[in-house]
Please model this.
Amino acid sequence: MNDPQWKTLVAAVRGESISPLPTAFIIDSPWLPNWAGHTILDYFTSEHIFLEDNLKAIRAFPEAIFLPGFWSEYGMCTEPSAFGAVSMWGEDEFPFAKKVLLSPAEVERLEKPNPRKHGLLPFVVKRLQHLQPEIEAVGHKIRFAVARGPLNIASFLMGTPEFLEATKTHPELMHRLLDLVTDFLVEWIAYQREVFPSIDGILLLDDIVGFVSRRDCETFALPYLQRAYNADVAIKFFHNDAPCKACAPLLASAGINLLNFGTQHTINDMKAWTGNSIALLGNIPPRDVLAEGTPEDVRRSTTEILSAVQDRSRLIVSCGGGMPPHAPTENIRALIATVQELTR
Amino acid sequence: MQDLSELQKAVIEGEVSAAVAAARQALDEGHAPIEIVAQGIGPAMAEVGKLFEEGEYFVPELLMAARATKEIFVILRPLLASSGAQPAAHVVLGTVQGDLHDIGKNLVAAMLEGGGFEVTDLGVDVPPEKFIEAVRRKPAQIVGLSALLTTTMPAMRSTIEAFNAAGVRQHFKVIVGGAPVTKKFAESIGADGYSESAAASVDLARSLLAS
Model:
């Protein structure tokens, strides 16, 4: 992300009037390598391909902000790998982490990983360090520390159904698990900030927060999100494209000021539930419209969604979730052009 | 003989031990296994589904109710088999090849069992051949395919194509579901039905069987 894009993002988060409205997308491994003509495994294993694919997207869509910018993640394997989870790879498949805890009681034996030494984390940091001169040579900077959120990591370590059940059957052990995961997360985020002083934002991705009731969110999510986001950065960005009516009113109290949400809710509803205190990133249907519709479908959907929004402050137009696999260039261009036409 | 309200309450509240105890008591009091399914578990899981749809229940509450149901079926299944009671239909379920997520599939399995269906759960990362082998071993009226990842959704299409190639597709209805799956996608791959939530899967299965 270059300086003007970062300034636009910060201005949007502060609620400043922006014309035209910014358009931004979370881009990562399912969409980006395939769109650029590479397999997911090539993208993850080649620094050259990683850089080339990111630059190709930046050049193809200069009006769009790509979030979080350059982020050398290894999908859902990144943080679980530090806890000893086996990472499974396919040539063109999203990597997957096998669970490491076979019962709630096994939480007792779990040790806090060292983000400087364990799993794929040193590779994530080193890759970005190696590419940093080339990234900065084209006017971009590494702006975000990125991690899966505490509930998401806990779910990968235990299995999602097992973790969610255990919040009911073994709440104390699940708090112990979340506590340890959050201690690790705080160190992981601090390490990224230490290595890259240009970081002034934190992105946590955690759909599991959307799976639980408001009461469970207050108990099992909020205290840990508050700790993970407790850093002096300008943008505290949260991705949750699961239903989030229950958690939305609580997110601002974790410090979150930018939210990418799904298509289950309207922008107006999200603004009401968050008290318009959080900038919203959304929410054109990613699969049915952006990936599988025609450019005309994208124009129609974007127009409908924007026309329905009463208050366009703290709004960044995007899809409801990350960029979906196989979203074609012409549809992304149609979305960007429509936003520019309608909000100039 | 007491009614089955205690069992229903235990299932709805996800109290696994209480649900199992209530099922044992119901059997001791002379309730037939099929009656416990039809008048106890079925209405309880329908209520759980309703509470989910209304936003009162969330995934953990569904999971606990499903777990209570599953434990009751451990007791009931052999009794149902020996009594000759016929299930509403046989459903084969699995998460498609390449996808290791089972939350949605497990919930659908519990809802369908609670609704009186016999469920064969093939687990996760199920290749098309395993589905085909399952329906050849024991004919199914419905096959359910689950996927959580956008990257594994294409495996739903290839599984249905494999059913066609194997000449078994016409013997059953195919239902699909999972977080990224939409009605439009379901139609585009030739599925017969799509359910937005596990809670709605029983109604979907019944409507497909009636059609």
In short: Chain A touches chain B at residues 30, 40, 90, 93-94, 96, 98, 159-161, 164-165, 167-169, 211-213, 216, 242, 245-246, 287-288, 292, 324-325 (CB under 8 Å).
